Amino acid sequence: MASPEDGTAGLTGCRVADESLLEDEKAMLGNDPGGMLRATASAGAQVRESAALAAEANLSVLADEGRPRAVVVAGIGTAGLTGNILATVAGPRCPVPVIGHRSAGVPGWVGAADVVIAVSASGRSPEALAAADAAARRGARLVAIGNPDSELQAVAERARAPFIPVPRRAPARASLWGLAVPVLLAARSLGLVKVNEADLAETAARLDADAERCRPGAESFVNPAKSLALDLAGSVPIVWGSSPLATVAARRFADTLAANARYPVMAGALGEAGRGRVGLLDGPFGGLAESSRDIFADPADEEDSTTRLRLVVMRDGGLNPQDDADEPVAVEERRADAVQVLAERRGVRCDVVTAEGGSALERLASLVAVPDFASIYLALAHGLDPMAVPAINEMKELSNPMPEGMQ
Description:
globular, Rossmann fold, alpha/beta, four-stranded parallel sheet
């Protein structure tokens, strides 16, 4: 019996995904009162808006002292993922290390020779605030990115550091592009990445086009996000990326599947998977489960409660102009081919998302956009509100209790 004390009271949704819930646009939007679909569809607009806001900030001061020894991107959750995006877009030939830092403060070695980029969608993340404060005290160059009129902006102003305001209109996980673009443009001011206005325009156009393909009114058989969501329904998803860029997209998909659809998911790089995790394909949720499936049974009537793996492979056959050679790409593509063959031999079903576009940023957008929508449609197919996640709020309340005098 659910009770308020055990945290299950008031939970809604259905255990089994219902495809019909994705075919009634009006009802579907009614189950998304917070507007996660609308927020996700704004990705292209986020790119344009955040680029304009970054242009208004005085980022040139970052370059006045020359090339830094290292760049630390401090943040957690989606804000933390922006550090991975910067490292990936910069590529292996980046002249300085780019380090993501997902805990409070900054690494002990950070000093006046370094740059710290503190990122927080709300502008009040303890991790980003502590990093910004530590950077200012140690004399490191600082740039802060987050909600305007926030604590983070106040810290940046006290340190006389650039602040790029990113208005918060949705949860951080729906604001990836609004946070990532200023990080990239700050790095461009330091001469670390080559992201030009054409790259930003093409990325925004790609996100707009995918939002149109994944619109709520498009039926499942023509909507790639709905199709992917229904493919994953009832499974344990494994998402592997064929390259560093594709691996960032894979981890992003894992984050959104967990937060929006409440699905357990494993994500990582194919190179790492081949050293051990590919063995999952042989296990009780992989080949062993598939070998017991009745291939003649109607899936709609099949009373099989066995949970099975569903593999998603993110493939990126493009070459970042800042990469060293074509050979790493060839190796990555062979691994992707191999894992698809292994999955087919064991009967494990596999979806493939392939990168498109010229620049690294546009290719990343092409890998992220459809899966972002898919995580929301999977939530809606289970009757879940993709924005309202009670466990997230309860976690914040339990880990940040109010002082006794304020209770």
